[in-house]
Amino acid sequence: MKELVGYCKKCEKEIYCIDGFLNGLIQEDSSMICFKCNEEMEPIKR
Question: What pTM did the predictor assign?
Fold first, then answer.
């Protein structure tokens, strides 16, 4: 099952809940962000 739950706060991409899994992240302010935007915001740890 695929259900639209909101939009990315940064790029406005649609964020879905697919079979019980959110394809994005919920921020502290209750907004959502897609995985791609989250990766761009976080520094790479090696």
Answer: 0.78
